[in-house]
UniProtKB/TrEMBL annotation:
This is Fibrinogen C-terminal domain-containing protein. Gene3D superfamilies: Gamma Fibrinogen, chain A, domain 1. PROSITE patterns: FIBRINOGEN_C_1, FIBRINOGEN_C_2. NCBIfam families: GGGWT_bact. Residues 88-312 form the Fibrinogen C-terminal domain.
Length: 312
């Protein structure tokens, strides 16, 4: 990592050297009547502009990289402090849980160190190994209401919670992860009779921070849950302190009490409030919501899981 930072810092220096070389090469002593000289000067000016432009962009990128590094370190120290039960795997950190399963076919469900491309450090991630031989990278889980999901943009960006119980892995991580392959998203919701329902989607992708972590999916592949997510495809992420939804007048995250890819406002929000026993009252459906067409209007699920594996 130290090497990478040094290289990044060296780039602007290299451009400064190039810049000064170009300035020196500029022929200031010739008369402006010389046509070829005019052309040459225009050319130089254009190059100078390009270099300055590039320098600015590099500076911006460097700031972002630094910010990301800080976020990663904070995440490692603050959020995923439960590192007692991490499963070891020989060799470099896998890109996702699917790779864990591919390298170790007998690997069991649990926490592994995972490092997607573009991510600075490996992070402890919960992997679910299913009976079909797939390894799913779990990025959201609710199970007992122990974690507060009514949080700000920063928390949703870097992730929060405990990978061994309730957590959100973080939008930054989700972005890096979903850039790697074409991922299938599996949503799993469990009601208060312990009936489990699933919904699968292809082409799940989370855009960069610059585009406010916009989420897209290609297609609802089926399952025995309703499709409550296609409505949200193409939406940016919204939190109580960052309103990116299409609703006029209200911030959906404020009234639904959790960060999500709200539109105007929702068919689903698995990051809502945890209501014991499912049904609840109130003005807004701010529970753990996955709309069933014929279900009770305000129903909050007992447990949820959102996880990814590459399409193959
Ligand atoms: C994380 O959750 C597990 C399981 O509930 C628990 O044993 C552990 O103490 C938790 N760790 C932290 C840091 O809260
Ligand atoms: C829904 O499908 C899943 C996966 O096939 C299955 O495990 C679950 O039991 C089904 N749920 C119900 C309520 O039938």
């Amino acid at each position: 990592m130290r090497l990478r930072m040094n290289r990044t810092q060296l780039l602007p220096v290299a451009f400064l050297v190039l810049l000064s070389a170009i300035c020196k090469a500029r022929p200031a002593d010739r008369t402006p009547h010389d046509l070829s000289n005019t052309v040459y000067q225009v050319g130089t000016q254009t190059i100078l502009d390009l270099v300055v432009d590039k320098l600015n962009r590099l500076q911006q990128e460097m700031d972002e990289l630094k910010q990301q590094q800080i976020i990663t370190l904070e995440t490692r120290e603050g959020t995923y402090s439960d590192t007692t039960s991490i499963h070891r795997i020989v060799g470099p950190a896998p890109l996702d849980c699917h790779e864990v399963r591919r390298r170790e076919p007998r690997a069991v469900s649990g926490v592994y160190m995972i490092k997607p491309r573009g991510q600075f450090d490996a992070l402890p991630i919960y992997c679910e190994m299913d009976k079909e031989g797939y390894g799913w990278t779990v990025f959201q889980r609710r199970m007992d209401g122990s974690e507060d999901f009514n949080r700000h943009w920063r928390d949703y960006s870097r992730g929060f919670g405990n990978v061994s119980s309730e957590f959100w892995l973080g939008n930054e991580f989700l972005h890096h992860l979903t850039m790697q392959y074409n991922y299938i998203l599996r949503v799993e919701v469990t009601d208060w009779f312990n009936r489990k329902y699933i919904a699968d989607y292809s082409g799940f992708e989370v855009d960069s921070k610059r585009n406010d972590f916009r989420m897209t999916i290609e297609e609802f592949l089926g399952g025995n849950a309703t499709d409550a997510l296609t409505y949200h495809s193409g939406s940016k992420f919204t939190t109580t302190d960052k309103d990116n939804d299409d609703s006029e007048g209200v911030n959906c995250a404020v009234v639904h009490h959790g960060g999500w890819w709200f539109q105007a406002c929702d068919r689903s929000n698995l990051n809502g409030l945890y209501y014991q026993d499912g049904t609840y009252g109130g003005e807004w459906d701010d529970g753990i919501e996955w709309k069933e067409t014929d279900g009770p209007p305000f129903y909050s699920y007992k447990a949820t899981k959102m996880m990814l594996r590459p399409w193959e």
